Amino acid sequence: MSGTSLDGIDAVLVEINGNAFTTKLQLHEFITWPIPEEIKLEIQDCFSIERSSVQLITSLNFKMGYLFAEAVKQVCNQARIPLTQLDFIASHGQTVFHIPTSFNRYTRSTLQLGEPAVIAYETRTQVVSNFRTMDMAAGGEGAPLVPYSEFLLYRSNRGRIIQNIGGIANATVIKADANLEDVIAFDTGPGNMIIDEMCKRYTGKSYDTDGQLATKGKVQPQLLDECMQHPFIRQPPPKSTGREMFGSEYVLSLLNQWRHLSIEDLLATMTMFTARSIVDNYKRFIFPTYSIQEVILGGGGAYNATLVKMIKQLLPNQQVLTQEDLGFSSAAKEAIAMVILANETLHGQPSNVIGATGAKRPVILGNITPVPF
């Protein structure tokens, strides 16, 4: 998959057996395959209402298909596994726009690019893709997708929040000894998206490595308070968001007002905004109902030492861990989740979590593109 942060295509080679509660998996290889700069620019243009076009979206859909196919070939090559040994490819695609709730003349909908026919042809392997759309057809928001896999992998006798911090941050709540119908999940707000965008504009780097720049700055209370007033932060779940709400347009609006601040102070404040928005959602929508002992961080944000430190300071009564503390990979987590979803699709089993998306009923996710010849 390729996320909203555009930091590369995550590809995992996973051996998976069984399904649902009998699922057993082993990670054999993981790579992040780079997205060429010219393709990144085209994706960013697709994100923009002003710069996007039908021609650009149509062309990029096929370009991303070829890139995903190449990522599959590379991860197999690195693991020394021939393509002929693959049973299926799970492809989330590249989200370019997501409309979780209808407004004006626009209906609830979502669009992920990365043509599965191209992937299937290039690899001679069946592809399961487009996981969000069936949930939306069933009245859900099509996001978040990962709670099903998190339930299978992380349920225990302790109350847990599995907090993914990618471009957008999302929380999955798994109470002690939970059943699937007990699970709730929702987007909490921005993850790395604002931090990365500001870092790119000021330094040319795609992200703040280990939060090093942020740790040199000071959190600006007035800017932080303004950000925390964003209506999405206080919106009750189910809820989902993306680049259309916290992307470059949002960053530009902040910079127009706060450009006099140093990049260190901006990043310190935006890093705290991510931490505060996550914890504020916990206090509003999770802690009043659920007893939580552990918060487990994943995604790229789990490698930002400054962000992790801020979250720990804001949660003195919970143990804050990373995926690595449990023997998993923060970086590979979402790609592994796609494999689990595709496996359920091929077994004819629903894998949406209605407590996460708000769908009317459990449904089988994903479209299947067969081996072409």
Briefly characterize the structure.
The protein is an alpha/beta fold and 373 residues long. The protein has 15 helices and 12 strands. The protein is globular.
Task: Note down, in words, how this protein is organized.
- With 373 residues, the protein is α/β, with parallel strands linked by helices.
- It folds into 2 domains: 9-143 and 331-369, ATPase, nucleotide binding domain (Nucleotidyltransferase, domain 5, 2-Layer Sandwich), CATH 3.30.420; 147-326, ATPase, nucleotide binding domain (Nucleotidyltransferase, domain 5), CATH 3.30.420.
- It is 41% helix and 18% strand.
- The chain has helices at residues 37-47, 54-79, 116-123, 133-137, 147-154, 193-203, 212-216, 221-228, 231-234, 243-246, 248-258, 263-285, 305-314, 333-346, 354-357, and strands at 9-17, 24-33, 89-91, 94-99, 109-113, 127-129, 160-165, 168-174, 184-190, 294-298, 319-322, 367-369.
- The protein has a 5-stranded mixed beta sheet with strand order 9-8-7-10-11, sandwiched between helices.
- Strand 1 (9-17) and strand 2 form a beta hairpin.
- Helix 2 runs parallel beside helix 3.
- The longest helix has 26 residues, at 54-79.
- It is globular, with a radius of gyration of 20 Å.
- The two termini are 25 Å apart.
- The mean pLDDT is 95.
